[in-house]
Design goal:
Number of strands: 3
CATH class of the largest domain: Mainly Alpha
Number of helices: 6
Order of helices and strands: HHEHHEEHH
CATH topology of the largest domain: Arc Repressor Mutant, subunit A
CATH superfamily of the largest domain: Winged helix-like DNA-binding domain superfamily/Winged helix DNA-binding domain
């Protein structure tokens, strides 16, 4: 296991603070940050507890969350009884697809608001129409970007 140095620990802490800005638990961000830089790239719960200086229950809870959203995978190895955690194989694509789903939900919220307002309420509708137009555009374009990125990865 990699012994965390001071700079890595600061990086991991910054990752946690970044996650916290979006309403996620700091420990989830710290766990993901550590899994991005640790050696070996898979860690047991005990190794995560030691590196991050948090409780087993916290790691257990955050690992379930990170697995659920597709950023972390639980793996096992033949002949070993322990589970290991690592950054998911398609973590960034799954995170991006989650963002795409949020885009669709925002577009639907704008459409719902537009349906509630009378046609003649032009000024009131403009705010929602701009929101709808942006999210409709993103909903159409983000999958194309994802596809282009996947194609570029296959070429390299």
């Amino acid at each position: 296991m990699t012994v965390p140095d001071e700079q890595l620990l600061h990086y991991v802490e910054d990752f946690g603070l970044y996650f916290e800005q979006f309403g996620l638990a700091r420990t989830a961000g710290r766990m993901l940050g550590w899994l991005l830089v640790c050696d070996p790239p898979h860690q047991t719960m005990d190794e995560l507890v030691e590196a991050l200086q948090v409780s087993k229950s916290s790691i257990s809870t955050m690992s379930r969350l990170l697995i659920h959203i597709g950023l972390v995978s639980k793996v096992s190895f033949p002949g070993e009884r322990k589970d290991y955690y690592r950054v998911g194989e398609y973590a960034w694509i799954q995170g991006w697809e989650t963002k795409n789903n949020q885009t669709n939900q925002m577009k639907q919220m704008a459409a719902r608001g537009l349906a509630l307002l009378p046609e003649e309420a032009t000024e009131r509708r403009e705010r929602l129409q701009e929101m709808y137009d942006l999210y409709a555009f993103l909903e159409a374009e983000l999958p194309k970007l994802t596809q282009r990125w996947l194609e570029s990865r296959q070429k390299s």
